[in-house]
Amino acid sequence: MMLDLPAPIVAYFAADGGNDADALVKSFLEDAVVVDERHTYNGRAEIKQWKVNSSAKYEYTSEPIAVASIDGKFLVTSRLVGTFKGSPIDLRYCFELQDDKIASLEIGL
């Protein structure tokens, strides 16, 4: 099922699926924030390193399966299947967009 996602979120998942940290980081604002596994990454340099490290740590595929828009944020549920404990798992990605880029992303259960 194709989901109707905003362009920056489509770009994020395409880059994530292609394991392309350079393309992924371009979908974020310069001062964007990512929160994943209780760690906060500030700015494109830290976000790129986060993606490089997570890609080296796990092999996975991610398929967005649901989206909702709440209070100006996009909540995307994505199914991850890979080489990690608990696979497969559905994670929630809370995106906040600004100027056609991702301003913040929080990933959780």
Describe this structure in words.
This protein is 29% helix and 48% strand. It has 109 residues and is of the alpha+beta class. It has a six-stranded mixed β-sheet with strand order 2-1-6-5-4-3. It is globular. It has helices spanning 7-17, 21-26, 43-57; strands spanning 28-36, 39-42, 60-70, 73-82, 89-98, 101-108.
Output the structural class.
Answer: alpha+beta
Task: Figure out the total of helices.
Answer: 3
SSE string: HHEEHEEEE
Shape: globular
The oligomeric status of these chains comes to single chain
Unreliable spans are none
Mean pLDDT, to the nearest integer, reads 94
Straight-line distance between termini: 22 Å
**Biggest sheet descriptor:** 6 strands, mixed
Strand content: over 45%
Measured on Cα atoms, how large is the radius of gyration?
Answer: 13 Å
Share of helix among residues?
Answer: 25-40%
Q: Give the number of DSSP strands.
A: 6
Arrangement of strands in the largest sheet: 2-1-6-5-4-3
